[in-house]
Amino acid sequence: MSASPETLVTAADRLLLPEPGIVHTLAPGLRARAAAVLLRMALDQALDAYWLRVTPSMTRIGKHRMLCLEWYAGHDTARRCRTTWSALSAACHYRTCELPPAPAEIHTRLLEVTGLLSALSATNG
Predict the structure, then answer these.
(1) Separation between Cα atoms, residue 123 and residue 109, nearest integer Å
(2) Consecutive 10-residue runs of the chain (125 residues): their mean pLDDT?
(3) Residue 84 in 3-state DSSP?
């Protein structure tokens, strides 16, 4: 059983903005990277759900989902999906010569993923 995209976004939000009084053993950069992974998973699941509604054959190859999204969901939604997915993918990967993503940067992506979840669920293709 997998978590819904909304549940993944909520979990990412808790990682980025912990409740007052909670002590975390993870550094903020590590929590931001973990949140980025959750957000990318949420976006992937939302795209799968969108394509299952519109045309199920589009869920087979991930690259096609992004390339064809513009013709089904509109230019703005497709651009936002590509940009957000790419930024989250970059934030997910550990590179020894780079700093981890900033929590504020990932929080901005969280807001964008939340908007995309709404846009993708409202669009019928």
Answers:
(1) 21
(2) 89 88 79 96 93 82 81 93 95 84 94 96 74
(3) helix
